[in-house]
Amino acid sequence: MKSTYFILIFIFSLTFLSVFAQEKKSQLTQKQDTLLVKNLNEFEVTAVRTKVPLREIPAAISVVSSDQLSTFSKTNAADEALRLVPGVRIDNGASGSSRVHLYIRGQGVLTESGFRGIGVFIDGIPVNDPSGFAPDLYDVDWATVSNVEVVKGLAASMYGASATGGVVNILTADGGKKPVNSLFYASAGSYGFWKVLGQVDGTQGNVNYRVSYSHTQGNGYRKHQAYYGDIFSEKLNWTPSNKIKFTQLLTYTDYFDQNSEGINLGRYDTVGHQAANTDAIPYNEFHKTQRLTDALLGKFDICKNQDIQLKGFFRMNKYRETSNNGDDHKPFINTGFSAQYNLHFGKENLRNHISLGADYASKTMTEIMFAVDKDPAREDSHFSETVLDRDTILINQVIKQKSVGVFFIDKLDIMKKLYATLNVRYDYVYNELINNIPLPDSVVQPSGNRAFQNTSFRFGLVYDAARFLNIYASYGTGFLVPTEDELYNNPEHWGGFNSLIKPSAFMGVELGLRGDVGKRFYYDLTGFYVNSKNEFYRYSIIGRGNNTAFFGNIGASTRYGVETYLSYVPVDFLKFDVAYTYSHFQYTSPDSVKGQWIPQCPEHILAVEAAVKFLKHFTFALNMEYQSKWYIQTDDSIYNKFTENGKKRDSWVKGFNTYGANLSYKFNLGSCHNEISLFAKNLFDEQYFGFTEPNNGPDYNSFQAAPGREFFLSLKLRF
């Protein structure tokens, strides 16, 4: 009844806006106040390793444009940027910062921090380590992002073992056309949030540049959830000739966030929605990241039909995580290189595009963990890094990773209507562990190594029948290797690598339709079906002390679903966007979990947004997000029999419905272009869980409450 009431209010508000805007139509100008649908089939997508028009790609791809990114102007988190991308679920609402849990078609659901199986690139440079794990999105300042390309499904397998679920390609803005431009942005809001950003950019001859710095901080919604972040970003494009282009990137990130962790339902019932874990405050649990990334990209046109693309990067990361288990220091160095040769030949009605390339990445991490004592007298002061370390060293090890991938892509254009794409890739991933702590003779493998290799392929066809009808289909395979956490948490004994876990293998098909009608209506509809073997799952072993989470292969699964995006502009100043995802993800073996749902995957996700322009300078937008209930456990035989605080528990997490609004005013003062925005999230103060984490045992399951009602006020000045 409550949800129905809110939905009626939402529909009534949209109707009112439409009528109000119609009355003001005579005051509008086409240049300032038009919200026409952009023809996404005219977008050129780079996330498929070469720049290709979207209408020629046989894959489910969503493009988030700069206009969509600016509609809701807090620009602090990934959930705001990707809220209208079907097939994607983001759980960063629980933390209030940029430490996210990102899922695409159910991939990446079991990681405790960060995400895996999804390739993430910032201006073409990978965020993932060689095993495919991405710890965070701290390096992304969403206020500087121009657009985002999201490739969903096995089409992303052209990036190897790190991208079986999809690829998120984040592209930052270039500098402006004038020699010197400047930008100032400030925002403040609920729970102590504030952010400032300064930027200088421009074009001087054949050099285009952008330099920005931002500081963000907040207290967080829950106790012990304060965070701050400093991001320095520099981008330089140099075009010495029309055949050569270099792009140099430099990013430094300093990020801190207190870790309130998840709580069980018993603590949630007795303490409340904003409670922290019982260990969070006395042990001062937090994450601290300091990261420097330097990269150089080059494109060289050999002749009219041939070019070479080169990429190289160097990353230093100083990471620290404290918990009741210990004070864990994990500094690492990550390097990578990519080379790709592109050849185009043939006639107008039969043209061939061939790409040959190789990717290489390495990572060396030194981990030292000290035992800690809790401090019962410690107050929960924001940003404190004080921890009571003991002299006892629990972990002293070095983990080395290397990955090599070679790929072949062939795209064939037939009569400018039919496009066929074949890509084949071979990957080799090597992991080595060196344990520097003397261990008892009973430990057989204090050190060890594991290597994985596989060949994956994909074939797709797209028929561009007309502007309003673009049909595509594909079939492909992929595989996913274990991450470093899944390897060095060894269930057999202390030390060494987990020898029981195997890579997961995937086979899938998809069929889609997309197109637009008169720049008034755009649609994108995709159906997919995926079979998997050796699905990963997470479990606990009693008596293993600081080793609290172990990973293995639970069996096979079947995943199928539908992803839909619609954009409709009934009049020039009113626009509706709808993104809906239906997911049916279940285990098919073994019998102990057959028919059970894969954790963290709601069956229904719906996002709706409506924006109206009025009085020349104003834009008002409303949004609604709905997620149905989801499953938390991989083995509910224990949990369903448990009674806690007099209540019977099961393995389902209640879904939610939230609403938001944004009012912005754009105005000019001389040559300065300005915008003031008021942004509201979760207007009706819905209480729900933003992230849940499965563990064995009745009281181990982890629930993290999402923020309540939030308000933000922002100012943007562009000189």
Overview of this protein structure:
The chain is mainly beta and 719 residues long. The chain has a single domain, classed as TonB-dependent receptor, beta-barrel domain (Maltoporin, Chain A). Helices cover 6% and strands 56% of the residues. The chain contains 5 helices and 40 strands. It has a 23-stranded antiparallel β-sheet that branches. It has a 5-stranded mixed β-sheet with strand order 3-10-11-7-8. β18 (306-323) and β19 (326-329) form a beta hairpin. The chain is globular, with a radius of gyration of 25 Å.
CATH homologous superfamily name?
TonB-dependent receptor, beta-barrel domain
Class by SSE composition: mainly beta
Strand fraction: over 45%
State the helicity in percent bands.
under 10%
CATH hierarchy class name: Mainly Beta
Our count of domains comes out at 1
* Poorly predicted runs of 5 or more residues: 1-32
The number of helical elements comes to 5
N- to C-terminal separation? 49 Å
**CATH architecture label name:** Beta Barrel
What is CATH's topology name?
Maltoporin, Chain A
Rounded average pLDDT: 87
The total count of strands amounts to 40
Principal-axis shape equals globular
| Major sheet size, sense and barrel closure | 23 strands, antiparallel
Radius of gyration: 25 Å
